[in-house]
Fold each of these.
Amino acid sequence: MLGIECGATHTVALHEDDGQVVRAEFGPANLRLLDDAQLAKRLRQIAKQFPKPVAVAIGMAGTCTQADKKRLYRSASIAWPRATIHATNDLETALAADTWCKPASRVLVLSGTGSCCFGQTPDGTTAKLGGWGHVLGDKGSGYEIGLRALKACVFYLDRDDVWSALGQRLLCRLQLNSPDQLIDWIAQAEKAEVAGLAREVFAAWAKRDKIAADILAAAANTLAEDACACAKKLVGKTGSVRFLLAGSVLLKQPKFAAKLAKAIRARRPGSQVATLKNESCTGALNIACRLAKRPPANPSATVEANRSTIPVPGLAQLGQAQTEQRHPRSMQLDRMPLGQAIDLFLDEDSQLPVAIAREKTKIVRVIGWVRDAFQNGGRLFYSGAGTSGRLGVLDASECPPTFRADPRQVQGIIAGGQPALYRSIEGAEDDPEAGAEAVRFRGVGQKDVFIGIAASGRTPFVWGGIWEANRRGAKTVLLCFNPTLKIPSKNRPNVLIKPDLGPELLTGSTRLKSGTATKLILNMITTLAMAKSGKVIGNLMIDLDPSNTKLRDRAVRIVCQLTNASHAEASHALERTCWNVKKAAARLAKP
């Protein structure tokens, strides 16, 4: 039997055979956001791993109408032509995950990024409130909580001329410097980004912030009203109902879930209110078991399937990496005098150039590839997670102002996307398919160079990128600091740069020596590739983009040094050429 739950963040499939349940994850799927070809492709990916179930139950986000269910059923029937199939939405599958086995009318109260209430009686009658999306609905959701927090903070700023403590939290999370910057941010923010602000509201609530408390009290009351209205549609004013709380907001915030449960019981005394303990895909598998007339599956027997066919170095290699070993010189770091500790840090960093120099031949080869790519319309891509990803993005972001390079010429890819630049994104680095997908969506091709950065050498996200870049014919490189790393034979980068830096002074903290060495090597690659591509004369940046006062002053001095012109002559020439150093210098060089 096969149960599948498809949502906005990912798809989970549970396959039961002879008592063993195998769990696998795939990419996100929302019926409203997929055309027929894309829907078929999503289901084929699952069918490739689980090809011959006797029964399939699939609940997909965005499946609202009977026409939607028929469309999903048709596509699933093609993927599994011999199976009995039940196609529905992800709300029905969530209800079916309830561990309480007695027949009962149930109402699912869902609050995650979005929100919805969905009820079902034992005979299959259903009722629904919400599910209209964040523009028209999503009351009491993470999105609405985040948006209300923003509105409340700017309201009190306007009224009282004071920026609240909650507002300070929100700016810190978004890495913004002033409330004015919220205008541009909210205009471009994705639904999930706004919903992510709910975490700060809950954190402020825990510190007894009044604004946060008011927002969450309103959210709990709204959800309770909708839940009870759904129950009334289902069984009337007095019928017995079991309410099930689900979604990331309610599952990850038990204090808020308890507040909601209290509000529901106050409106509908005697009601059962429970948190959905099993993940929603368990309900899909339970429905599949009913289709096949088999007993419900046992979730405790679940094992993880291999999430990807992309070859990745085994986890055992992480523990063997030098970056994970304890450094004998820093065993007493917590008790070491500060002056002595600083000397130790400086001494360790002074050894980096020697270790990097041993890899010089490989680095030279890579720089040559990047130079050729730049000269032939190709691009350079960095890919990494955590510190490694941030350093790649940093080096890429410095190329446009330094060399007047097209922002697409050097690109950084970080596991977890933009939010991972300033906070940890759980599990992002463990997904090789996401690394491969990022390469596909960036359009990496034969003219390009792809450099994966992983201090330990085994980050799955990076290996997924190498796999896809290899498949597309790009030149591939792995930069790591694990000299004993064993490379998968079916997923080898063209060049492996692996300086032996020894253990970190703080065990496993690769933002230290590994991070410094990464920055040094990336600096060499882009600077020298740009220099050999005509972006430098001598040691002068003749293609810098003078976008501020400091850089304009530098541009004037560069033109003076290139042409022996006076400061006034250089300034005038730059103004006439829209601050293009090359053109200004050429203009002054004319007789």
Amino acid sequence: MKTLTGIPASGGVGLAQFFIYTENVPLDIPRFHIQKETVRAEWDRFCSALDKARIEIEAVRNDSLKENNEILDAHLLMLEDPVFNKQVKDRLETYLLNVECVVFDVSREIIQKLIASPVEYFHERAVDIDDVAQRILRLLLDVKKETLADLTEDVVVIARNILPSDMLTMNRQRVKGIALDAGSKTSHTAILAKAFGIPAVMGLSQVTQEALDRQKAGENELVFVNGENGEVIFDLNDKTIVYKTFVQNFRNYRKNTAELMANLPAETLDGCRVTLNANIEIPEEAEQALAFGSEGIGLYRSEFLFLTHGQPAEEEAQFNAYCRVIKAMNGNPVTIRTVDIGGDKIASNRGGAVEKNPLLGARAIRFSLAFPEIFKTQLRAILRASVFGNIRIMFPMISCIVELRQALALLEEAKEQCRMKGHAFADNIPVGCMIEVPVAAEIADILAEKSAFFSIGTNDLIQYSLAVDRNNEMVNYLAQPFHPGVLRFIKKTIDAAHSANIKAAMCGELAGDTGATALLLGLGLDEFSMTASSIPRIKKIIRSVSMQDCRILAEKVRECKSAQEVQGVLDANKALP
């Protein structure tokens, strides 16, 4: 068998013949000079292409499920972006090049700036810009676009990348898995794959070439996609029946576990109750969260409302999005994390310098404090939505008490602005902070004085604690969640929370790791927040262990001197049947 390993982006397993989707191979863009008197005609062609693109996107929007509207709305806004359109017009007039060439150059420059950022979120927004630019270029060149909508057989789609618009129009019933050269867990494509329940592995680098080589050799074989561990397997040979059986058993197990666990409490054998919440990206994921037995939303990422060519959503758009989540959760708590993006793109649009290292720059709460009007717009929208349900506010990447005080002061200003405008909001909204940097864990006792709860963001805590860029293939093996230092930060945070009589939650990927559940229970974690589909499995583990045993496990782990030793202890105490 030939196994490729990438990033597990959407859980589940799938098996089918592979289908190589090459539609996103770059277009052949002509480049030639034009006469000054034809500039107007070229501009008119561009405007006509924008109008046609708008019609196409709106048609997809009307046929698509409403939970995908945020992505399509973002694409529509890109067509209206005055910065992009002005750049196209200025280049036409200055360089006297054909409009296809100008559109390509302008979009490439924007995309390259986003990709150059160390912040993964900007990389994924580059995909959306590429999606819209490719649509405009196809219309200018009169190139017909093939889609995945016409699939008539079950397939595993293999591609360099799949644009969000392709995901929205494909025949989902026929797609049993996705394997991509590019992409990550935070891409729109990954998020849509999760929403559609399609197993997906990304960041495989060579999977398209592997499939092309096999196709040239006359092989159109079955391929196995494991969205749980990031494996894609070719050459199943005499193991085909084994894998078909495995896929069916896995799906039955998932379905039965979800149905069985949905309405049961997350309670250990000796009666210790914890809370299981869901992480969501788009409002309609709230309904799916409830179906999997979520007790609330532990992390609503608001980033989707903020980056469309660097422009944050208006207050009303944010208010409507928050209301949809709150109402869907029927009184269950909804924790909205204020925007967690870097400031390089948005700051540059406001006269600020582009940051060389946004990962260590004006991101998350630092960005919000640097742009208080943007921050207060978001806070007003959250406050106004609070009258419709049970809401909590969470500040990301707090590193000192001064930042927390400043954020709370701006929240008070937002409240006063709501009062002046006659907007009602709920009293005593719980406000907490994320523990994502080592110093925050070290001063957790100080931060607890001004916090209603903590939520541990393990993705960044690991990254900053170990000085490891988890997206760098050369060093990401060092991003070890079970490093003794990381576990000490987690334990210190939990203890500080309990000393202050507040709860400690976790919303990073570690919260949904079945191998970590018993340990986290033993460390005293009160709330777990994860991808909704992971909730049944985590709940099953919780209901199969005793808190006493989990504490003993945690004590054994505290004696370990390396991540490898910790993993060995956990492997010897697996709680999952």
Amino acid sequence: MKIKHLKIGSLLLLVLFLGSACEDFLSVNDNPNLPSQVPPENRILGAIRTSNGAAMWRGTREVSAITQYGVTRNTTGGFWNAETWRFTSAYFFWQNAYTWALPNAVDLIRLGEEDGSPHFVGVGKTLQAQLFGMLADQYGAIVVTDSYDGISQVNLTPGFDPQDEVYETIIRILDEAIAAFRQTENNTPLNRTGGDALYQGDVQKWERFAWSLKARYLNHLSKKSNLYDPVAIIEAATNGFNADGMDAEFNYSAGSLQTEENPWYSWGGFTNLDNPRFFTWSQFYVDLLTTFPVTNNEYQDPRISRIMQPAPSDGVYRGLRPGMGLAGGQGGSGEFTDPEDYGRFRDSGYYTRIDSPFPFITYGEVKLIEAEARLRSGDGPGALAAFEDGVRADMRKLGVTPTEIEDYWAALVADGVAGHFSNLTQGLSHIMRQKYIAQTLNPETWVDMRRMDYSQDIYGPSLQRPANLNTIIFDANDESDWIRAMVYEGNEEVRNPDNVPDNTPAVRLRSRVWWDIPE
């Protein structure tokens, strides 16, 4: 379908039309004074923005409660339900991705092809691949083959593709994006109208973004012994981000519209200061930032002061255990039930200020992916070197001083980190705890926690299932019974019942996605 007679003044109006209309409807009121087709340079910003704010943030809002970044104050309401795994089909990541973000990415591909500008094709495919990846990682089987293609009538009852086939498609799309970025003949520069909010027209950085995503998705296959390929992962990581300043992240600002502000600061009820969706950071996160892996020796990571604020009452960093609310006190101990004994979540530091960037994927993550692949291939020294690069990169990103970085690394060395990388579990404990910190509030963390089976050997003793667990579905006596996937959105289930997999919460929430099933 071609989008007719639209002005680029209202992004929200644009994406709503993209998600719900087609050519016959939009051509009812032809206006010869308006263009018949929006050029690709005027669509790139919408594709980036909706992929980040509409889809990625909506896909991590509740998931950030599962991964225990943020904790609510009250034991009632929507976010407490997310903390305690009481999910229903009223979860709108599916809608936001398929109605808003994917159509923008797909139309950018088609417009780039028509314009003879393969670099726009590469951008659209890179974003499309990540959107399919986020959807598959949360749900398992998703709509790919029958999804919006920019040409055909929208299919309201699409078939679902199994996740193993989705992953093959993701890698193929990323390879196609990389090939598109390498084309030397390109009619329209990416940033002709200033729409390339990620890289301002730097095609080489876009290519490295695609390679970085390829490393991420190949690395998800760690439980598939016949498919996991450390050599391919290392190759992708090497071709991915290789320096500071390459992170793929959307930079929000203190604008006049909430859509211009970082969503963790403002959207979805975060501006309700008396009862915000997330009240404070979790005690689990505080523990990761104040102890070392393996030994659990105490050491305060300098990033903690860049991420969160200490309690105004006594200057101590403390958090709540998920599922208990403020009444549970610090970490569920029952102590410190005064709100002033906690640093607040919103506007507390690097990730939750009004102008905080929201990353798709970062240089630090790519180095930690490389570290895992090298560790699994038996290259302990190479894994340690990549790990160090990743840790240092994330610290620099958050504004940690060189002296603080050197002190932290020296303390890690003194704590035995080099020896730990001769052991798979101990090395993974270092890598995954650092990834948890480097990927703060990113849905990718849930992928890692499931790949690691929520292991305390990896994440430390303070990782526990939430209090007030949804015992209607999960076994209260089985500590290994953790949430594994999300429920499909109710609109899809009602409109497309013959194709949506069994969407009973008791089935969906406990069903492992494909890459989570060991082989």
